[in-house]
Amino acid sequence: MQNEFSPKHPCSYDELRHCDERGIAFLPWSPLGGTGGGATSVGERFSVFAQVGQAHGVGPQQAVLAWELSLGEHVVVIPGARRAASIVDSARAADLELTADELAACSAAVGHEIG
After folding, report:
1. Virtual CA dihedral for 83, 105, 8, 82, nearest 10 degrees?
2. pLDDT (tens digit, 9 = 90+) per residue, 45-75?
3. What is the distance between the alpha carbons of residues 60 and 93, in angstroms, rounded to a whole number?
4. Most buried pick, 38, 40, 51, 60, via CB within 10 A?
């Protein structure tokens, strides 16, 4: 299933859980919040991602992608990129391990409990 899902647009969370329960891949498009600077300002709009990123020495964008990937093995994010550096940064999110407290804070910031 391919739905829009990001901190700015978390309304597909129920579908994400539904897919997890049934072993269906969930591909969140626009995972950083959409076009028009969504990725650039995600840390300003959702400071928890900026704080988590800073704690790990990465940007808030990588923290968002790591959080989304943590929501299940069935989640395959589709971030857009205009620069090679952005592609590399996004790929590194797969190796970024957030703590349980960080994951809970990120989920709470967008209005969802994890677990």
Report:
1. 0
2. 899 999 999 999 999 999 999 999 999 999 9
3. 10
4. 60
pTM value is: 0.91
Task: Extract the tokens encoding 72.
Answer: 């299940």
The residue type of 90 is S
Q: Do residues 86 and 58 touch, judged by C-beta distance below 8 A?
A: no
What DSSP element (H or E) covers 79?
Answer: none
Place of tokens 């579908």: 15
- Domain ranges within the chain, ordered by starting residue: 2-109
Q: Which CATH superfamily hosts domain 2-109?
A: NADP-dependent oxidoreductase domain (3.20.20.100)
Residue 35's pLDDT is 62
Mean pLDDT (the chain) is: 90
The H-or-E segment that residue 13 falls in is helix 13-22
Q: Which two tokens stand for residue 76?
A: 């395959």
Rounded Cα gap, residues 83 and 93, in angstroms: 16
